[in-house]
Amino acid sequence: MDYAPTPSGRSRKPLLGGAVGARAIMDGREVIVLGSNNYLGLASHPEVIARAKEALDRYGAGPALNPPLATTPVHEALCAALAKFHRTESALLFNSCTSANVAVACTLVGAGDRIFSDRLNHASIIDGCRLSAAESRVYNHGDFAHLEAQLAAPGGAPGAGRKLVITDGVFSMEGDAADLRPLIDICRRHDAALVVDESHAAGVIGPGGRGTAALRGCEGEIDLFTGTLSKAFGAFAGGYVAGPAGRIRELHDRGRFFMFTTAVSPSAAAGALAAVEIALRDPSLAERLAENTRRLRGGLAKLGFRLLGGDSPITPVMIGDEAKAAAFSDALMEAGVYVGSVRFPVVPRGEARLRAQPSAAHGAADIDEALAAFERVGRRLALI
């Protein structure tokens, strides 16, 4: 079936004409996609698609029951696979990582407690902190002295005083990975629980692609992980929390953003389960992603672009000026390369950037072709 675009009054966005891999049809022509979250290239993997279709045929579009009321063997198997991936006891599915982050913040701390968030955390973490009844405090990005001073400061109510520290594993606009070892040590000194959002890390960085904790050599020392199915694990809608069985049971029984919403569809659960299993058995995908990241970053740096990050495939190309960043993105699209621009209010004024993200689906020729377009367009726009 063909879908015709209708006027919506919204900003113009490219229209996809098919699956997103190394390349995709956008606005009716093929372009290299250098800005998707399909990190491992599994969104169109035959095994992933086949198992999603099989579950759709068996269970229909959705369970039509709220998550606490009923589930399927596919959902249970996906929870077990996610727990295995993160080397934890248990996992719980949500319909997005936004729901998972809000549920963690609103369930595990409350009135009289305190929650501490890195300044550059994802918007879903920020919103969860604001929606919780706990006192929310923000520490400067990666500034552990600032965090420790806030943890040591008096706060909370008599008889309560639980403390929760939450951080991105990989920061989505900067591409750097959290230094978890000092965070763990600080949390232990101040009896605080530590939650790490692995949305841009799980399947992506660290040995075997097992995420930030594996990268930093501290698996088994994190209290809770949150994550998403929408990136490395097949690009399906859905999120999760992984951790000790007791904590997961508390979220199951008391997490309003789990209880009062719809479940991940059976087809999405089955496809994501296939993707997690592929990621577990085939570390070459994460290795190929790392090689593509090195090739892209090395080429962009050689051209003279200023880059952020370095720990993950997220490669912010700093432009600064909002209009120039938008013009650069548009010109690259015309040259056959899709890379989105990120501007205020997502990032501060004067820090506009292009946010490039390679995939394991790319070959060396794709990366080199994209770099050639960066050079042509960057010189024409006097950005290099």
Report on this structure.
The chain is of the alpha/beta class and 384 residues long. The chain folds into 2 domains: 23-33 and 283-380, Alpha-Beta Complex (Aspartate Aminotransferase, domain 1), CATH 3.90.1150; 46-281, Type I PLP-dependent aspartate aminotransferase-like (Major domain) (Aspartate Aminotransferase, domain 2, 3-Layer(aba) Sandwich), CATH 3.40.640.10. The protein has helices at residues 46-59, 73-86, 97-108, 123-131, 144-152, 180-189, 212-215, 245-254, 256-259, 266-281, 284-303, 322-334, 364-380, and strands at 23-26, 29-33, 90-94, 114-118, 135-139, 163-168, 192-197, 224-228, 239-243, 306-307, 315-320, 337-338, 341-342, 352-356. The strands form 3 sheets. Strands 3-9-8-7-6-4-5 form a 7-stranded mixed β-sheet, sandwiched between helices. A hairpin with a 7-residue loop joins β10 and β11. α1 runs antiparallel to α10 (266-281). It starts with 22 loop residues before the first strand and ends with a helix. Residues 1-10 have low confidence and may be disordered.
Radius of gyration: 21 Å
Q: At the first level of CATH, what is the class of the largest domain?
A: Alpha Beta
Profile the largest sheet: 7 strands, mixed
Distance between the termini: 44 Å
Strand and helix order: EEHHEHEHEHEHEHEEHHHHEEHEEEH
Trace the largest sheet across and list its strands: 3-9-8-7-6-4-5
Strand runs, count = 14
CATH topology of the largest domain: Aspartate Aminotransferase, domain 2
Helix content: 25-40%
Number of helices, where a helix is a run of at least 4 consecutive DSSP H or I residues:
13
CATH superfamily of the largest domain: Type I PLP-dependent aspartate aminotransferase-like (Major domain)
Which CATH architecture of the largest domain? Answer: 3-Layer(aba) Sandwich
Overall residue-averaged pLDDT value: 94
What percent strand?
A: 15-25%
Which structural class do you get from the secondary structure elements?
A: alpha/beta
Identify the overall geometry. globular
Q: How many individual domains?
A: 2
The stretches of 5 or more residues where confidence is low (pLDDT under 50) are 1-10
